[in-house]
Every structure is written in structure tokens, then in C-alpha cells.
């Protein structure tokens, strides 16, 4: 029985599609682990600057918890906390929170706090602030965020947790005050939360990275 040219073309296309699908599946199987490892390494590298001066021997992303909203941390969304250890003892917690009242909306922050309640580093993860003004809170554009390292709830006293224009301790950004105010308030609130809940934070069972929404 002869096969029509149209049927031959259809069979050929189906065969090609099947081979391509198999190749894609095989490639994914071979590279998925490597991609996941690279993503994990990138995340570890991105979070590490918020742990300035600390010794730790755990992976930054090995022990994660989610604090469901509502909570007393900045922002209305669930908060992610990366817990860091040295020789199985807690060293610090990294909080991913949203500072409210940024000039152009919420500012997503990573705030590191050691077990003594001292800020180890602050990073801006995401924002929509004005280019050339508020966006200078980015680490790659200024060192403004470094001024918070080493400070705690008692250093400065509560009134000092403000920009100098408002009678506080911290520098603002030239031409921008709304963005710094929002970040300073978020750092102070995170310190307050840590002071009240540190034991709970380190006692909570860890989640796997797949269970956590970034």
C-alpha cells in the first residue's frame, strides 16, 4: 500500500518532534543539577555581604524559616529568615522584609542581625526608587547602607534611629529623605522583633529551600 506524500511529511515531522523532545528532556536531566547548584551558589554569594565580620560554618541558605503575616516585622507579606550557625550554635539571622513607605513603593531589604542584637549588614534586594536619588541606597552605587553595621537598639538610643535632619544619628542621601527614613524605620523594627523573638526564631523547624517563596 502506497503512502501519500502528506502522510509521509506528517510522519517525518512527528519523528523529528519526538527526537527533539527526547533531546530536550535528556539535556534537562543532565543540566538541572548543575543549574540548581549555580543558583544556590549565587544566592549564598548574594547573602554573604550581610554577615560582615562574622565567622560561620553553615551554608547561609541551609536553615530557613518563614514568618507568616501578620507579624511585627516591616511589611505585610510573609518574612523569610535565613539562620546562620557556627559549630551548630546560632550566629545570626538574615531577615528578608519589605520597608513600607518608600518614595516609589515598598523596598525589599535583607537585614543581618547577630545573636547580640547587632546589625551585621543591610542590603537592598529590590526597589523602585528614583534613579539618581533614592536608588543610591543600592550597594553598588554608594556605601550609605554601611553606616548601620555595628548598631543595635541601644546604639543609638531610640531617638537616634532617624536621619540627622530629624534629629537622629544617620546620614541621609543628598536630595532624598523619604527612602532613608523608610529603611531606617524598617531596620529598627526588625531589631525590635529579633530582640523579642530570637529564641523562637532559632527554635523553629527549618524548611527546605523549595518550600520558601523568595
Radius of gyration from the alpha-carbon trace, in angstroms? 24 Å
Tell me the strand percentage band: 15-25%
Strand order of the largest sheet: 1-2-3-4-5
Tally of separate domains? 1
For the biggest sheet, the summary is: 5 strands, antiparallel
Which percent range fits the helix content?
25-40%
End-to-end C-alpha gap: 60 Å
Low-confidence stretches: 35-40
Number of DSSP strands?
5
Helix/strand-derived category reads alpha+beta
Give me the number of helical elements: 2
- What sort of overall outline do the alpha carbons produce when their principal axes are compared? extended
Taking all residues together, what is the mean pLDDT? 81
Order of helices and strands: HEEEEEH
Structure report:
The structure is a single chain. With 214 residues, the chain is of the alpha+beta class. The protein has one domain (50-211). Helices cover 32% and strands 19% of the residues.
What is this entry, summarized?
The protein is an alpha+beta fold. It has helices at about 5-45, 180-205; strands spanning about 65, 80-85, 90-100, 105-115, 120-125. It has one domain.
